[in-house]
Amino acid sequence: MKELTKAEEEIMQVLWELDSAFVKDIITQMPEPKPAYNTVSTIVRILQQKGFVGYEVHGNAHKYYPLISKEAYTKSFMKGFVGRYFSGSYRQMVSFFTKQDKLSLHELEQLLQELKEKKS
Please, what are the domains in the chain? Predict the structure, then answer.
């Protein structure tokens, strides 16, 4: 699965939240300053070409919807991220964030609990 650019990911986040939307609906959900209609329309068409977005025709307009779930994209992205930055080791990633004080003891305990539950 291809990795999304920052602009593409921002639009996908909106589509994942809304389930389906016209370009004007996507723009409404985006933070200020709002991008131009043509910019969003172009990015949505690129997402369509990449296989991330499908559409339904409604008169002269297209209503777009995600073809790939947020969970599936996140899983693919994280696998690539961990592979590139932590030699494929999730343990190294957790260790890095723990050392950077980005992962509290409470969060680490929660992770351990989730791992124990998964093994059971």
Answer: 6-66 (1.10.10.10), 86-120 (no CATH)
